[in-house]
């Protein structure tokens, strides 16, 4: 399996004008070339997702959302999808804002807080493929890497909450920590059973398995349940409603982000939407067949003829995975604008008394299922 | 245990219910969308709706409209208006001329009720920013041509609910249809002043005043009196009343004391006192107010050393006269001035003032500088004095006559005191 990084190194190393033993130079160049697309992807993702979120929330509340701001003189569709320049305008506004740091804040921690969160989201993207072979670096422990790195984010949140020297921030950070740590468990366990079935931690292997068999969502009732648990816990991990007690606007102002403004705040924002994309992409890859065409997957599920597969290939793969991820993001938004927030105790109840027992039982039943039917 | 599973089941069903509701709104956005993108789209005016139907006529009044062709210029509505926001100007049409018969006329000779129109309505404006929607102007109109839009008048005029304008002047609705030529023509025929021509002239004057280069010294305001108008170019003024630099009083720390002192000083200066007298009076006033501390007394004593600039003296920028009543010649002028935008009106007044002080006797027949009387503190007395002065001057009398008459009149009113006496003495001199 080749990855983006591997091919780049090979390409640079093979070029005639690149001197021998220039590993250092190649390393730096590759790092930059690799980081750029990830950063661009995160920015683009945040912009599009914010626009989408605004529109979706507006439509669900019988409003129109942004309609006036255009970009390059183009406002977007007349009736409903106008104002496509809104997020660009907001981004410019955010970058132009004064950067305030509270006088009593712990300056150093206050400053690095958002970047740790951002760094975690950024590094997570390295392991996530968005198409066949389209991955920055293809680890053979992909799932493990993603789970491990994405949990680093909670440190950034705690730092931000602590350094702000604000009771709301600290409350938010503590809740956030409790929540993220609790929901790591169901996430890990529901991924565990997939790993159990496939026998590999590599994302490519998991998708290959689904290509040969069927999507995990349809594999067995237990994997379907695992998908549900994974997705719900994922939503909880990115702190979105109904699990948004760390930011609970009505009680905690803005949680750990209360004291942030301008650029630093937008870093939080960027990471949050990036985390959303990570959860959506992971669900798509692990349970929904990744870059496989849904039609092909459907036919495979019913063991239909191979010749019926169509719309597959590397670029179609990107298309399909995006469609799946966007659909899942839409579901997150749908959920957010429908359900009320859980109380902290309810939140813990859901994690420890519902998700974790079910996920544990799931592992057992999937094992039996595989023994008997696999 | 069963409760636990039932809970989970209920959670799913209730969550699903909620999702169904929001999905219903999302997918039916065309039908359910409540937003109206106002400047781009507007609600259609309801045909039958509360406030616009007859029975609600007195509940909601949309706005005033005048069917000007039916207006006979009887001024009933203008008189009825409690806030004086209707302004009408008419010219009596000579007996042998029929309204509307002159070439190019836009007027009708009779109203739709068949009444002969004997007055040309040269101006009919309603300042809707001032109007209080009391509807009082509607009842007296003999031709029923002024009315609130809506209610029983629905068919007479479409309902209009958008009043927004960028400038307050935009809320002065002009209903008159007479052309300038027509007004001029009828005015000539009738042998009266042509108010439209006067207005045009004045507008031109204002324009000139606004266009004139700003003198550098104009930027300096001495901060004693608030400058009401935004800085408009004003020609330099000749001082028309005695003036004193009161900046020393700024040293008084207490705001109330400072205000009292300045007021007293200004009053004394206007009354034509000398510096020493001014200082005395200020002291007296402060003592009365219980504000005289030794410190303040020192500062006030400093006033005695300051020269008072006498009227007609060196050219200098006069204090912007915010509250000064302007020279009111013909009534029409005052009227027009009220309608004119504030700052410009101020600039407009200046050329007249220039001519005044030196030649108050025969500079211009009918024009006199009334500002000299501004020193009179009592409002009633001041008004009376001004009225007499302008009347006497118009009739060709000298300031001496005027002063005599004012004296008699004010004695009757019991308002003749030393201060006024001093001012009258100056008027005579
Ligand atoms: S409605 Fe009242 S305030 Fe308005 S113009 Fe008529 S009389 Fe004046
Ligand atoms: S009362 Fe009627 S006729 Fe008389 S001036 Fe007013 S609008 Fe014209």
Report on the structure:
The complex is a heterodimer of chains A (374) and B (429). Chain A is built from 15 helices and no strands. With 374 residues, chain A is mainly alpha-helical. Chain A has one domain (111-373). Chain B has four domains: 2-32; 48-190, Alpha-Beta Plaits, CATH 3.30.70; 243-310, no CATH class; 340-428, no CATH class. The model of chain B is unreliable at 48-52, 218-237 and 313-366 (pLDDT under 50). Chain B starts with a helix and ends with a helix. The longest helix of chain B is centred in the first third of the chain and has 26 residues, at 2-27. Chain B is flat. By secondary structure, chain B is mainly alpha-helical. In chain B, strands 2-3-5 form a three-stranded antiparallel beta sheet. In chain B, strands 1-4 form a two-stranded antiparallel sheet. Chain A binds chain B through residues 56, 59-64, 67, 79-80, 334-335, 337-339, 353-354, and chain B through 4, 8, 15, 18-19, 21-23, 25-26, 29-30, 32-35, 37. Residues 64, 80-83, 85-86, 126, 131-137 of chain B line the site of one iron/sulfur cluster.
Percent helix of chain B: 25-40%
Low-pLDDT sequence parts of chain A:
none
Distance between the termini of chain B: 112 Å
Biggest interface, CB < 8 A: A-B, 17 and 17 residues
Report the CATH topology name of the largest domain in chain B: Alpha-Beta Plaits
The major sheet of chain A is characterized as: none
The Cα radius of gyration of chain B reads: 32 Å
The share of residues in extended strands of chain A comes to under 5%
Characteristic key phrases:
heterodimer; A: 374 residues; mainly alpha; 68% helix; globular; B: 429 residues; Alpha-Beta Plaits; three-stranded antiparallel β-sheet; two-stranded antiparallel ribbon; 13 helices; 39% helix; flat; binds iron/sulfur cluster
Short description:
With 374 residues, chain A is an all-alpha fold. Chain A has 15 helices and no strands.
């Amino acid at each position: 399996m080749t990855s983006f990084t591997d091919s780049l190194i090979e390409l640079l190393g093979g070029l005639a004008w690149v001197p021998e033993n220039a590993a250092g130079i190649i390393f730096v160049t590759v790092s930059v070339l690799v980081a750029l697309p990830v950063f661009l992807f995160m920015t683009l993702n945040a912009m599009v997702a914010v626009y989408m979120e605004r529109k979706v929330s507006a439509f669900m509340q019988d409003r129109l959302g942004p309609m006036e701001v255009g970009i390059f003189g183009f406002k977007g569709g007349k009736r409903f999808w106008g104002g496509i320049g809104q997020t660009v305008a907001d981004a410019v506004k955010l970058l132009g804002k004064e950067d305030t740091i509270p006088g009593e804040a712990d300056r150093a921690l206050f400053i690095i807080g958002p970047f740790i969160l951002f760094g975690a989201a950024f590094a997570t993207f390295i392991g996530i493929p968005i198409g066949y072979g389209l991955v920055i670096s293809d680890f053979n422990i992909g799932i493990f890497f993603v789970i491990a790195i994405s949990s680093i984010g909670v440190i950034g949140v705690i730092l931000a909450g602590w350094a702000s020297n604000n009771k709301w921030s600290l409350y938010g950070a503590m809740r956030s920590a409790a929540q993220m740590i609790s929901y790591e468990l169901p996430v890990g366990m529901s991924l565990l059973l997939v790993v159990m079935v496939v026998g590999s931690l590599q994302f490519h292997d998991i998708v290959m398995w689904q290509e040969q068999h069927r999507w995990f969502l349809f594999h067995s009732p237990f994997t379907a349940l695992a998908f549900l648990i994974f997705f719900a816990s994922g939503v909880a991990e990115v702190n979105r409603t109904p699990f948004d007690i760390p930011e609970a606007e009505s009680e905690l102002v803005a949680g750990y982000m209360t004291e942030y403004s301008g650029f630093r705040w937008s870093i939080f924002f960027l990471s949050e939407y990036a985390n959303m994309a990570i959860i959506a992409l992971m669900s798509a890859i692990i349970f929904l067949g990744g870059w496989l065409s849904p039609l092909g997957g459907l036919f495979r599920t019913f063991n239909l003829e191979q010749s019926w597969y169509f719309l597959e290939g590397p670029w179609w793969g990107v298309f399909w995975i995006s469609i799946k991820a966007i659909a899942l993001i839409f579901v997150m938004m749908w959920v957010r604008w429908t359900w009320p927030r859980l109380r902290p105790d309810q939140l813990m109840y859901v994690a420890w008394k519902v998700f974790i027992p079910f996920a544990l039982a799931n592992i057992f039943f999937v094992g039996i299922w595989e023994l008997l039917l696999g | 245990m069963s409760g636990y599973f039932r809970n989970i089941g209920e959670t799913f069903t209730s969550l699903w219910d909620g999702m169904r509701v929001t999905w219903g709104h999302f997918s039916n956005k065309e039908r359910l969308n409540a937003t109206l993108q106002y400047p781009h789209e507007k609600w259609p005016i309801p045909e039958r709706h509360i406030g616009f139907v007859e029975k609600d006529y007195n509940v909601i009044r949309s706005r005033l409209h005048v069917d000007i062709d039916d207006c006979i210029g009887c001024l009933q509505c203008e008189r009825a208006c409690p806030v004086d926001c209707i302004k009408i100007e008419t010219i009596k049409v000579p007996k042998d001329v029929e309204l509307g018969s002159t070439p190019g006329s836009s007027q009708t000779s009779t109203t739709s009720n068949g009444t002969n129109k004997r007055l040309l309505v040269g101006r009919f404006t309603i300042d809707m920013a001032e109007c209080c929607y009391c509807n009082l102007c509607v009842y007296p109109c003999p031709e029923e041509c002024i009315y609130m839009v809506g209610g029983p008048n629905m068919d007479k005029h479409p309902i209009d609910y958008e009043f927004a304008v960028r400038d307050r002047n935009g809320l002065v609705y002009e209903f008159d249809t007479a052309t300038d030529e027509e007004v001029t023509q009828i005015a000539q025929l009738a042998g009266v002043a042509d108010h439209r021509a006067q207005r045009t002239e004045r507008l031109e004057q204002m324009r000139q005043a606004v266009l004139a280069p700003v003198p550098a010294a104009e930027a300096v305001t001495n901060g004693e009196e608030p400058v009401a108008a935004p800085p408009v170019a004003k020609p330099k003024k000749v001082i028309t009343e005695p003036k004193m630099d009161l900046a020393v009083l700024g040293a008084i720390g207490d705001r109330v004391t400072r205000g009292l002192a300045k007021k007293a000083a200004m009053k004394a200066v206007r009354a034509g006192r000398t510096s020493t007298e001014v200082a005395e009076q200020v002291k007296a006033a402060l003592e009365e107010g219980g504000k005289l501390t030794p410190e303040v007394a020192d500062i006030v004593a400093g006033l005695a050393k300051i020269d008072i600039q006498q009227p007609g003296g060196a050219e200098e920028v006069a204090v912007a006269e915010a509250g000064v009543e302007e020279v009111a010649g013909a009534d029409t002028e005052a009227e027009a001035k009220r309608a004119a935008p504030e700052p410009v009106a101020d600039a407009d007044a200046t050329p007249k003032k220039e001519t005044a002080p030196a030649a108050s006797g025969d500079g211009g027949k009918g024009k006199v500088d009334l500002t000299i009387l501004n020193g009179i503190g009592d409002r009633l007395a001041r008004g009376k004095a001004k009225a007499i002065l302008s009347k006497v001057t118009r009739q060709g009398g000298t300031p001496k006559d005027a002063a005599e008459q004012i004296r008699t009149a004010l004695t009757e009113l019991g308002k003749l005191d030393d201060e006024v006496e001093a001012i009258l003495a100056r008027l005579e001199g």
